[in-house]
Design a protein that fits this description.
One of its GO terms (biological process) is cell migration. By secondary structure, the protein is an alpha+beta fold. It has 3 helices and 23 strands. Helix content is 17%, strand content 37%. The site of one 2-acetamido-2-deoxy-beta-D-glucopyranose has 3 residues, from loops.
Length: 300
């Protein structure tokens, strides 16, 4: 019997509480707005004993604790001069800023019950992306890795990124599309980083990136990526030829030395240089533009 009494009393208290507490509602508990546009934080008294002067308070819930937005019948804090109470007790923010993204709590107390009704509104202020900073290596040898970066930090919510080659969008993974069978790359759309594990000639092209979020998109300027042949065989051959030439020169010098070409004091004092001129060829200076012509007495 006592238990039933306790239960009934509890039920009665709950009913009284329910009647006295205001019940609040909202036409939109998750409003989304573009930065610099206006937004209504809708708060509607749905149920309760209406009084002539309900006390209205709005709070912004931050990590450091709630702060007042509307208190004592005026807008205070960050939103001062930017917000008004419209259609009691909804709040309208005229010129939203990115820092307004937060949870707001509407609290209404009627002067009979003194039991506040409350409702939370989650406001999201969206910010368009700005032009991303893009980084494309200018020239990469065939077979080497290449990393392309694209990033912007203004967009709210965070931007996602897409790379384009010669105006054609690249998939997140080259393996996912037969068109890119000759490439091997992966893109992380969240970071904007495009990684080629080994570039091929077909990766040469004009690259740009677009950052996108629900508020808009922004593109960086095109940049050229050049892929060049690093011809290993050619380099080895070239090195061998140089080595061969050096060996031959060394051998020639050795031979010449052995045969005494470098010894001083030839018997008839004639140097090889002067006698190297073939007999019968006379070097003549002709009148026209000081050219050297030679004519052989054997030819004429
Ligand atoms: C809105 O606020 C920004 C600064 O946050 C200011 O530059 C701009 O002039 C304001 N616009 C209006 C219409 O008040
Ligand atoms: C890939 O490379 C092969 C051989 O070089 C070529 O025949 C083919 O057309 C290329 N495919 C694409 C999609 O570029």
């Amino acid at each position: 019997m006592a238990r039933v009494c306790v239960f009934l009393v509890a039920l009665l208290l709950l009913c009284v509480y329910k009647i006295l507490a205001l019940k609040l509602g909202s036409s939109n508990q998750n409003p989304v707005v573009l930065e610099y546009h206006s937004v209504e934080l809708s708060c509607i008294i749905e149920d309760g004993i209406m009084t002539a002067n309900p006390r209205i308070e709005w709070k912004k819930i931050k990590s450091g604790g709630p702060s007042y937005v509307f208190f004592n019948n005026q807008v205070v804090g960050d939103l001062m001069n930017r917000a008004d109470i419209l259609n009691n007790p909804s709040l309208i923010i005229h010129n939203t800023s990115r820092t307004d993204t937060a949870t707001y709590r509407c609290e209404v107390t009627d002067d009979i019950g003194k039991t506040p009704g409350e409702i939370s509104i989650q406001l999201m202020v969206q910010v368009k992306p700005v032009t991303p900073r893009c980084n494309v290596p200018k020239a990469v040898p065939v077979g080497k890795t290449a990393v392309l970066h694209c990033r912007e930090n203004e967009g709210q919510p965070n931007s996602v990124y897409r790379w384009y080659r010669n105006s054609e969008p690249l998939p997140d993974n080259s393996k996912s599309n037969p068109k890119f069978v000759n490439s091997s790359f992966t893109l992380d759309p969240k970071t904007g980083t495009l990684v080629f594990s080994a570039v091929t000639k077909s990766d040469t092209g004009l690259y740009y990136c677009i950052a996108t979020n629900p508020a808009g998109s922004a593109k960086c300027g095109e940049q050229q990526l050049e892929v060049y042949d690093l011809n290993i065989a050619g380099i080895v051959c070239g090195a061998l030829v140089v080595l061969l030439v050096l060996v031959l020169i060394t051998l020639a010098i050795c031979c010449a030395y052995r045969k005494g070409y470098f010894s001083k004091g030839k018997p008839n004092g004639k140097s090889y240089k002067t006698s190297a001129k073939p007999e019968g060829v006379n070097y003549l200076r002709t009148d026209d533009e000081g050219d050297f012509r030679h004519k052989s007495s054997f030819v004429i």
